[in-house]
Amino acid sequence: MLLSKVSKGGLWNWNWMFLRQLSTPITRAGYIQRPYSYSYSYTHYLQPLFDPQKETKVVQGSIFQKHHHFSTTTTSNASKEGGEKKESISVTFVDKDGVEKHLRVPIGMSMLEAAHENDIELEGACEGSLACSTCHVIVKDMEYYNKLEEPTDEENDMLDLAFGLTETSRLGCQVIAKSELDGIRLAIPAATRNFAVDGYVPKPH
Amino acid sequence: MAIFQARTWLSRSFSTLSSHPLRVCVVGSGPAGFYTAEKMLKAHQEAEVDIIDRLPTPFGLVRSGVAPDHPETKIVINQFSRVARHDRCSFFGNVTLGSSVSLLELRELYHVVVLAYGAESDRELGIPGEDLVGIHSAREFVWWYNGHPDCKNLDLDLKNTDTAVILGQGNVALDVARILLRPATELATTDIASHALAALEESSIRKVYLVGRRGPVQAACTAKELREVLGIKDLCIHLQEADLPKTPKDEEEIKNNRIQRRVYELLSKAATTGPSHPRSGQRELHFVFFRKPDRFLESDERRGHVSGVHFEKTVLKDVGDGKRIAVGTGQFEDLECGMVLKSIGYKSVPVDGLPFDHQKGVVPNIRGRVLHDTSGDATLLEEGLYVCGWLKRGPTGIIATNLYCAEETVVSISEDLNLLASKASLPKPGREGLLHLLDNRKVKFMQFSAWEKIDSTETRLGSLKNKPRDKLTTWEDLLKVARE
Q: Fewer Cβ in 10 A, N or C end of chain A?
């Protein structure tokens, strides 16, 4: 059905159909365009964005990718197979008790925001301002850890102080969902499980 | 997802066995107190938690310790406020343990009492001249610039000298150095207390020495704070290259210690970039290592005032267990100054009826359960009495350290309550009992709503001066606004 519409009206019709089918993810996808600003409380990102200009921009970007994959179009906004750009990725959180929770996280959202949106117990004392280490998460697979951008000096300064720091530790507020991270698993360090409070990390003020 | 939540709820909740609510009192409303309250409320769905504090303003060192130019560190207040506004939680300000209510009385009123009142005193050096005018603890200075009502009238003179010596090289020492050396214009838009800003605007201090007994490898500060102070505009950093080289023992020490490694790298870089010739009026920060204060020198012109510090040079000596301490070499050196700030550690204050380890400055405890005495006998416990935060662990760590500390204490409490549930547990008067007692004693306690009034007044006053808030810094002002 979709294919015939495209062959009749060309790219412009396709553009319109795309908009109609994917109205919800587009507002979420608007996150892609928005720069991550440390000075705002992360709750800003929980508001849906309804900027029509932004929607068009995103759609145009997606169009070029979509163009290659006619055969995989669907009428739903669920995740698609293949190398297409996804609006959200699959993330698994493993909580302090080892319980796993599978989420879909919109691209552009931080893991801290995603955790809070899904009632996962990840602390965020400074609400994403890079002034604490409470949103510390452990990336379960080195392969995924390597897909992340290097931490900045500021993030490393905070990681220095993180409880139960590991080789694959990152701050949850600095891990932003992107398509390469689809399937990532993040563990929340447990205080009383394996470490005494006065663990190996020396504690400065 | 709902099933997950129900399962965790059931495994955590306790009070299904008792027919009356669990009554908990937390003494101290800093991070330790609030994280404990939050976790108790979550772990025990029937619990009522009362948080008491001797100040009308909550949040402990988040309000009175975190430096004014570190506002992001204070964001955690939002989380703590949500806890205070929880319908099973009540905040009681202006209630002092020891005078408004005794520890014994609290233990009679509540099933569980958690002491989280931190460390409001200072370690002393115990050297001659320590009581000379011009010598203060860093804690007092920090309370002064953060508007703590107990230090409003601190006898500080920033105009009689151009040099201050800070003993200690931890983050508190760096905070204090930074506040002394930052241009006052940069401080004017922070929540620094107005009286402190006024004094700093007229300050003649241009040189600050940060003196440590040991070397750069052992410096107790962390990378973020060091990076910040090294990056202050127009501040000339002085570091002796001779102090820098690492011995094999130093290498061993930092091999597995990420914090120390990164701090050392920053210090090395600062030493090699070297100071440019100071322009006149330019401010200087000197890192001095391997110096132990021997005594304070008294001024000849101003009797009773400090004029310098007599230091003994040190070397590091192995004392076993991989530990090294600074020992004197018999060589001495003087540093002239008109002000000294001792940033060598805080110390907790005991109260009547509380077992206390005077040597360590903490309450003897095992995972937060208060012990009967300091003998280390783990079978002698003070039932229903717990500690959290600096009072439990000593005055170290960051705000987040209390997150894990509180978790440990709350686990201990929950385990003990589970054991208790098998016997009959009596109801306790809790909040009603406390209110009755405070009323009889005519204690004018302040609820969270009183703090909200103080908060909005400070914010409003601050907006007139382009500051996030203009703090009320006297007991009179705080109590007056709280009662409006």
A: N
